[in-house]
Amino acid sequence: MRHYRKVRKTKMVEELVGITCNFCSRKIIHEFHSDAPRRARRDPDAVSGGTVTITFGYPSAFDLHTHEFDVCDACFKKRFLPFAPHVTNVSAWGERLSK
C-alpha cells in the first residue's frame, strides 16, 4: 500500500512518502523505488519487499484490468511461494529463471 502526500511545486503533485505491505502493514524500504523522493531517509523498522503486478487478459472476469499491490519479503514467502511450481520466475531483464 502506498502513502502519498500533496506537495506544491510548480503545480500540486503527489510524492511517495511511504510503502506498507498490503498484507501485514509493515513498512517497506522504498528509498530506491522509482517514485521515491531523492533524499528518502532510511527507516530502521522498514523491511525489504516489492510490488506485484497482475494483468488479466481476455476473456476473464477482469478483462484487461491491471492490479498492483506491495508485499514484504515475509508475506511474499508465506502467501506466494507455495504456488512457486506454477509461477514463472522472470528476472528484471525479462529472462526466465530456473528454480
| Largest sheet strand order | 1-2-3
Total helical elements: 1
List segments where confidence is low: pLDDT < 50 over at least 5 consecutive residues: none
Whole-Å distance between the termini?
Answer: 29 Å
Helix and strand string, N-terminal first? EEEEEH
Structure notes:
By secondary structure, the protein is mainly β. The protein has one domain. The protein is built from one helix and five strands. The strands form two sheets. It has a three-stranded antiparallel sheet with strand order 1-2-3, with no helix packed on it. The mean pLDDT is 79.
Describe how the helices and strands are arranged.
Layout (H helix, E strand, L loop, with lengths): L1 E7 L3 E9 L6 E2 L20 E7 L10 E7 H7 L20
List keywords for this structure.
single chain; 99 residues; mainly beta; three-stranded antiparallel sheet; two-stranded antiparallel sheet; 1 helix; 5 strands; 7% helix; globular
Offer a concise description of the structure.
The chain is mainly β. The protein has one helix spanning about 75-80, and strands at about 1-10, 10-20, 25-30, 50-55, 65-70. The strands form two sheets. Strands 1-2-3 form a three-stranded antiparallel β-sheet, with no helix packed on it. Strands 4-5 form a two-stranded antiparallel ribbon.
